[in-house]
Amino acid sequence: DAGVTQSPTHLIKTRGQQVTLRCSPKSGHDTVSWYQQALGQGPQFIFQYYEEEERQRGNFPDRFSGHQFPNYSSELNVNALLLGDSALYLCASSLYFGQRINRYNEQFFGPGTRLTVL
Amino acid sequence: AQSVAQPEDQVNVAEGNPLTVKCTYSVSGNPYLFWYVQYPNRGLQFLLKYITGDNLVKGSYGFEAEFNKSQTSFHLKKPSALVSDSALYFCAVRALSGNTGKLIFGQGTTLQVKP
């Protein structure tokens, strides 16, 4: 049973460029959340996708956008990259928490994509 | 607002000794609390969770955590530390707003177990 996978593993971009990160959820999961982990910090929630819609968004600018596909995989897009966007981007999958039976489930995290902005 | 604090940046323990990694939380209502571990160049791995019930929660790899409502704490413990337990540990609380299960993480505590 494959866990959460993310690609690419590492990425180097320059300021002003755009980047797309990809995530495939754990088999059987239908919900994908994205987190940003800056160096020395805990992960910060960016947003969550369920049924191809953004369900909740953290305190991140509109430069951060996402998409979920019918097969539940997801992309995170960041436009106009800033130096401060350098971080480990983590994808987490789960079953939808809006259904009561799933309310207490944990999220499963992928290995992350390390983004460096020069 | 909900928050989690991990007061120690680093905890050093000798192999075979008991370990404790501290976590305190601030929530209104019942807290849903989690511990995750992160090894270098790896994502977060789930260790254990507290939802309700018994205040002592057992998890993976011999870890356990003690929920204390009066002290608003959820400390991670292990009776006998292994060198392989050396990693970065995160405490998290599930946000109550929305139905997304959004996690709010602490800053993390580096555990160093020395032989």
Describe the structure.
The complex is a heterodimer of chains A (118) and B (115). Chain A has 118 residues and is mainly beta. The model of chain A has no long low-confidence stretch (mean pLDDT 94). Chain A is 0% helix and 48% strand. Chain B contains no helices and twelve strands. In chain B, strands 2, 5, 6, 10, 11 and 12 form a six-stranded mixed beta sheet that branches. The N and C termini of chain B lie far apart (41 Å). Chains A and B meet through strand 4, strand 5, strand 9 and strand 10 of A and strand 6 and strand 11 of B.
**Helix run count of chain B:** 0
Topology of chain B as a string of helices (H) and strands (E) = EEEEEEEEEEEE
Radius of gyration of chain B, in angstroms, nearest whole number: 14 Å
Strand percentage of chain A, roughly?
over 45%
| Biggest sheet record of chain B | 6 strands, mixed
What's the SSE pattern of chain A? EEEEEEEEEEE
Task: Characterize the overall form of chain A.
Answer: globular
Mean pLDDT across all amino acids of chain A: 94
Helical coverage of chain A, percent range: under 10%
SS-based class of chain B: mainly beta
What level of helicity do the residues of chain B show? Answer: under 10%
- Ranges of chain A where pLDDT stays below 50 over 5 or more residues in a row are none
- What is the mean predicted local confidence, pLDDT of chain B? 93
Tally of alpha and pi helices of chain A: 0
Query: Could you state the oligomeric state of the chains shown?
Result: heterodimer
Distance between the termini of chain B: 41 Å
Cα distance spanning the termini of chain A = 37 Å
| Low-confidence regions of chain B | none
Using the CA coordinates, give the radius of gyration of chain A: 14 Å
